[in-house]
Amino acid sequence: MATPAKELHQKIHTATPLKGAQILEEALWREGVRVMFGYPGGASMEIHQALTRADRIRVVLPRHEQGGGFAAQGYARTTGKVGVVLATSGPGATNLATPIADAKLDSIPIVAITGQVPTPVIGRDAFQETDVVGLTRTVTKHNYMVTDVNDIARIVKEAFHIAATGRPGPVLIDIPKNIQQALTVPNFDQPMDLPGYKPTKTPSPAQVRAAAQAIMESERPVLYIGGGCIHSEATEVLIKLAEKCDIPVVSTVMGLGGFPARHPLFFDMLGMHGSVYANWAVSQADLLIAAGVRFDDRVTGKVSEFAKHGRIIHIDVDASEINKNKPVQIPIVADAKLTLEAILSLVKPAKHREWAARIEEEKKKFPYRYDRKDTGILPQYVLEELNKLVEGKDTIITMGVGQHQMWAAQWLKMHKPRTFLSSSGLGSMGFGYPAALGAKLAFPDHEVVDIDGDGSFIMNIQELATAYTEKIAAKALILNNRHLGMVVQWEDRFYEAKRAQTFIGDPTNPDVDYPDFVGIAKACNLPGRHVTKKSDVKPALEEMLAAKTAYVLDVSVKYSEHVLPMIPAGKTFADTIYE
Amino acid sequence: MRHVLSILVQNKFGVLARVAGLISARGFNIDSLSVGETEDPRISRMCIVVQGDDSTIEQIIKQLRRLVETLKIMDLAEGRYVERELILLKVDAIPARRLEILQVANVFGAKIMDMTAKEIIMELAGECGKVEAFIAMMKPYGIKEMARTGTVALARGSPASQGASVRDAAPAGVNTL
After folding, report:
1. Are B36 and B90 in a shared domain?
2. Are residues B107 and B135 in the same domain?
3. Least CB-CB distance to A138: which of B21, B68, B69?
């Protein structure tokens, strides 16, 4: 919170002309921004100066703009508030393209602010000039170029509103340097000018009645939940609805944590690497209640065969999701939580014990499994041990992309929403560690662990320096198999195990982990440990969790392990690979 | 099936690029796109002519509606509306053929905008079918150059009565799919 002196300081100043950059700082403060991520450059240093001189908002310096963007996402994904990242023009802005596109696909509210070359030289290929508005048009929910200093206050207000409401998403504001420097008496009470932006919230009563009716008629219902349930904070009503009508629940990666993992009605993740029992349940269901999901190809496989025995209720706040990938019988365009509450008030209690028991049977036949007797370190073993140590505690898990991500989704049992952070739609390697930094800043009292692969971790390894210098105690657990494991798995299954640039270890010493991640941590003044023996895994995990600073635990795991079960791309439940 | 979408958007920098970019990024094919200011200078009207089955058109409309600057979308395909396209056509017109060409132009109501010893430039405004027929008639004479505006369209009647003549592409939040 601001001290009274600081508020007074601002009051005096709002009566006098302010620079565009100062107006931006004030506008961000008024939007509730208390921490943000920014990497300065020629076209954005004016803003950094304004932030530093106002001395209210904490500006964390990442070591790469991409890290800053993912950190802003980590903050947004854990808090539900808008994350903010700032970069300079040209390469600063292009480095933000990946985290922005990532936020678009996973519907994460962030505001990205970029400096731009001064308006008189725009279009002349000035130093570090890029058409950022053009570049980010298709990967943002909306974007702006500010051309008048008097618009800054209003545009910031609009940007935060658009990012956080309806289906959340990234909004970019590009501000030329001369606009940052221009003086004006700001008007923070200017109304927003968004006549065409009216996100839907409440469901149509007729559709709610139809959905309730379908649920009451159903004998084999399944709830299929996703990121939309997290965004709309629907956990409580999901539990109530599932319990009242005895409905088994399955989740996408984005939805994990949205329903307590150990609840008897929860049957884990569905999709390509989902549980056999979750996919079996969906394939047998006579009613699929799809809430805040988008029938992604990694979930459905061959979409025409997906859930084809039943009717589908599709609840989504974005009308364009309805019938986009899968035609549905009962569409509801509205907020997931409000819709589920409306449905809950109409349905009568029901029991589907026999149906749930059949899914339980499948679960007994085909649980998530690995060879626990293997004397080597299997990645699943490491995660199962980690889960024993953190389950039920205030722990936030982030991850990179690949095999380790899917194993994390299988073996980490999340009980609360906003605790399982994964680049799910875009699948951006390098997401895990910077996202963990953002999460740890949002929740300093929670344990934050990035479960990463050696390939993913090295993509944003520079953020270890951020962790040390900013004193952010986010932990990294590397499941090091010296390979790009998921691609290796596909090579093994579909390309006669021919390795094509998927080995990322040391060619002269292929069995030894490379590079020395603990050495890199040490170079950043951070502790770490390298584990190669199974018996060392548990004590090392305990040491990592006990550390008061950031920590790198590099665990050497077998590379030959595959993520199973697996439904190959474009195939159906019947094509599931079990072994 | 051919649909004429009439879209009202905020008259702001970059809106055209946003609409055109969305259409290409989502892989939709359009026949024509025209844009211009309306009676309210803050608002522009775009007319997009697009071919597609019902589900394609539904996706295009929904995706366009997601744009923050979109105010209203009407699918004029099934309603009563007036549409016009303007075309400029330069044809070979050696003196021996000139009279014949002028006769055809007269039948279609095309205006002569320029005439030289070898060429005539004609202007025709009409609905798509008429424009196409005119082009077909002129082809044998040798079309040297051609410029088309793309379709512009307006629903008949007052806005209040348009419910009967226009299938207003369901506004956001109405679950009529």
Report:
1. no
2. yes
3. B21
CA distance A141 to A101: 10
Q: Which residues of B touch A322 (CB under 8 A)?
A: 62, 177
CB pairs under 8 A between A and B: 67
Candidates B70, B72, B173; nearest CB to A333: B173
Nearest to B68 among A197, A320, A333 (CB): A197
B-facing residues of A in 195-254 (CB < 8 A) are 195-200, 202-204, 206-207
Domain assignment of residue B176, yes or no: no
In whole angstroms, give the CA distance from residue B173 to residue A151.
30
Cβ of A303 under 8 Å from any chain B Cβ? no
Q: A18-49 burial, b if ≥16 CB within 10 A, otherwise e? A: bbbbbbbbbbbbebebbbbbbbbbebbbbbbb
Kindly state whether residues B61 and B93 are assigned to the same domain: no
Contact call for A320 and B70, based on CB within 8 A: no
Q: What pLDDT, on a 0 to 100 scale, did the predictor assign at position A118?
A: 98
The predicted structure's pLDDT at residue A5: 52
Q: Nearest by CB to B17, which of A134, A197, A204?
A: A134
User: In angstroms, rounded to a whole number, what is the distance separating the alpha carbons of residues A280 and A273?
Assistant: 13
Residue A365: how many CB atoms within 10 A of its CB?
11
In this prediction, residue A527 has a pLDDT band, given cuts at 50, 70 and 90, of very high
Q: Which residues of chain A does B25 touch, with a Cβ-Cβ cutoff of 8 Å?
A: 138
In this prediction, residue B80 has a pLDDT band, given cuts at 50, 70 and 90, of confident
B68/A194 Cβ within 8 A? yes
A385 as an active site residue: the answer is no
Q: Is position B175 within any domain?
A: no
Catalytic residue among A127, A243, A361, A494: A127
Whether residues B74 and B161 share a domain: the answer is yes
Q: With an 8 Å Cβ cutoff, is A304 touching chain B?
A: no
Q: Count Cβ neighbours within 10 Å for each residue of A331-359 and write b for 16 or more, e otherwise.
A: bbbbbbbbbbbbbbeebeeeebeebbebb
Distance CA B28, CA A160 (A): 30
A82: pLDDT strictly greater than 50: yes
CATH number reported for the structural domain that contains residue B76 in this entry: 3.30.70.260
Top-confidence residue, A16 or A444: A444
The structure tokens listed for A355 are: 């149906």
B58 closest CA partner among B28, B38, B81: B28
Residues A35/A164, Cβ–Cβ less than 8 Å: no
Could you give the percent of chain A with pLDDT greater than 90? 97
A128 labelled catalytic = yes
Query: Is the domain of B6 the same as that of B41?
Result: yes
Q: What is the residue-averaged pLDDT of chain A?
A: 96
Catalytic residue among A25, A26, A31, A65: A65
Each residue of A102-134: pLDDT tens digit?
999 999 999 999 999 999 999 999 999 999 999
d(CA A195, CA B69): 8
For residue B140, what is the domain's CATH number?
A: 3.30.70.1150
Q: What is the pLDDT of residues A374-424, one digit of tens each?
A: 999 999 999 999 999 999 999 999 999 999 999 999 999 999 999 999 999
Q: Is the pLDDT of residue B170 over 80?
A: no
Q: What is the pLDDT of residues A173-214, one digit of tens each?
A: 999 999 999 999 999 999 999 999 999 899 999 999 999 999
Q: Is residue B124 part of a domain?
A: yes
Query: Do residues B89 and B21 both lie within one domain?
Result: no
Supply the range of the domain harboring residue B39: 2-80+156-168
* Catalytic member of A128, A213, A284, A329: A128
Same domain, yes or no: B65 and B7:
yes
Tell me if residue A181 is catalytic.
no
- Looking at CA atoms only, how far is residue A84 from chain B in angstroms? 20
ipTM: 0.85
Instruction: Provide the number of structural domains found in chain B.
Output: 2
A433: amino acid identity, one letter: Y
Which of chain A's residues have a Cβ under 8 Å away from the Cβ of B177? 322-323, 331
Residue B7 forms contact with A (CB below 8 Å):
no
Q: Is B117 part of any domain?
A: yes
Residue A4: what pLDDT? 52
**What digits encode the pLDDT tens for the residues A219-261?**
999 999 999 999 999 999 999 999 999 999 999 999 999 999 9
